[in-house]
Amino acid sequence: MKAIENSKQEIINQPLLPTLLKLSWPIIIGQGMHLMYQLADTFWVGRLGPENLAAISLAFPLLFIVYSMGAGFSIAGVALVSQYTGAERPEMASKATGQIFIFAIFISIWFTAAALIFAEELFLLIGAEPEVLPLALEYFRIYVSGIPIIFIYYIFSAALEGIGDTITPMKIKVFTVVLNIILDPFMIFGWFFFPELGIGGAALATVLSRLAAGLVGIYIMFWNKTQLKLKLKHLVPDFTMIKKILRIGTPAALGDSALALALTLMTAIVADFGTATVAAWGVANRITSVIRMPAFGLGRATGVMVGQHLGADQPDEAGKVSWLGTGVTFIFLLGLALLLLFLSPYLIGVFTEDPEVISIGTEYLILAGFAYSFLGAQIVMSGALNGAGKTIPQTFFRLLTLWGFQIPFSYLLAHTFNWGRQGIWWGILFAKITGVLALIIWFRRGTWKTKEI
């Protein structure tokens, strides 16, 4: 109990940079563990053959759309809990957690039912081949059945982050990923006394590990293990607060769904240039997902600090921490981009020995390094807006960058201006620069520095 309570980070009236770094490093490690779990699933399922790998690849964008709902409403949790905490209103922070908790369970049941009913039609719509379809359906249906459990995990993690505790969610994420990695081979191949479930075993291992995390989260919140004292009365629907949750969470959730669609369309543009280019794109994006982790960690930490400072009626401090987090992230990622000028071919070579894929991947990764420096700055400013509860402008600028700049720039440079596949890479760089500049111009007005409570 004391270990959990002591993991809370004091935020108000503390030095900004040390507090920001202390909040962000557990989130970054948690992001890294999530990546480890994805790589482990890919590794073990890959032993079953290419059709099984293709099934997971097909399921991912559909699962990502469902996930985006949980992630979007968890942003409402961070915003409300952090602002009530900063305002020294712990009872309201607990009530907000309870309201988001019951709302997340309600909406997840509806999404699960819809996904199970329309699963086959969705896979046929995105072009599942006959030999892949039954495998994709098996994996997807088991995975989706655990969505209510996964939503619970999102909400309690967001609530703990909102009070300044990023270490407990990290510890539970590490436990979850290790459990998932251990269960994978036993449930896929039927080791020891486990049944051989194939690709379904990979999905079931994930659901069971998330179930364990969800049970731990419920125990922590209901048995007074943090300053959040969740009680049954907090689960009685309060439609005024639920409206606030919807207003904050819906734009973020829809924005993540639009992000999934944009990435699908970008892949289609890349596919015009052949299999080697698609392979290089996939490998390089695995590497950039690692590069983005510090930005996501600092963005979430910035959101928590912004929320608490606004709740404490300190809008100037909220602005300072936003610019500080943005600057630190940009400088750090720019340093990584300079390293990629020299390391890119070696990093691509870890995943493939094909010289053409290495060459194309290197060409993209060098430009992507600089592009993600600017994207990292945008991620942190988006985190600040999430902490303030301003998810509509945050979503607008994300969609503007992807749909208004990146997709048109990449297509026009590749095809209309005949730059070929390099036009796609330059289009991504130009889009990220343009997107963050547009956000900075609006952000400087400071109209976002108002609280939602």
Q: Can you describe what's shown?
A:
This protein starts with a helix and ends in a 10-residue tail after the last helix. The protein folds into two domains: 1-237, no CATH class; 272-453, no CATH class. 82% of the residues lie in helices and 0% in strands. Mean pLDDT is 84; it is low at 1-7. The chain is mostly helical and 453 residues long.
Strand/helix succession: HHHHHHHHHHHHHHH
Shape: globular
Please tell me the overall pLDDT. 84
Number of helices: 15
**Unreliably modeled segments:** 1-7
User: What would you call the structural class?
Assistant: mainly alpha
Counting DSSP E segments of at least 2 residues, the number of strands comes to 0
Q: Percent of residues in helical segments?
A: over 70%
**Beta-sheet strand percentage?**
under 5%
Instruction: State the end-to-end distance.
Output: 29 Å
| Largest beta-sheet characterization | none
Number of domains: 2
| Radius of gyration, whole Å | 22 Å
Question: What topology emerges from the helices and strands here?
Answer:
Layout: H1 2-5, H2 16-46, H3 50-86, H4 90-125, H5 133-145, H6 147-162, H7 167-189, H8 199-222, H9 239-271, H10 275-291, H11 293-311, H12 315-351, H13 355-387, H14 391-416, H15 421-443
Give me a quick take on this structure.
The protein has 15 helices and no strands.
Main features:
single chain, 453 residues, mainly alpha, 2 domains, 15 helices, 82% helix, globular, disordered N terminus
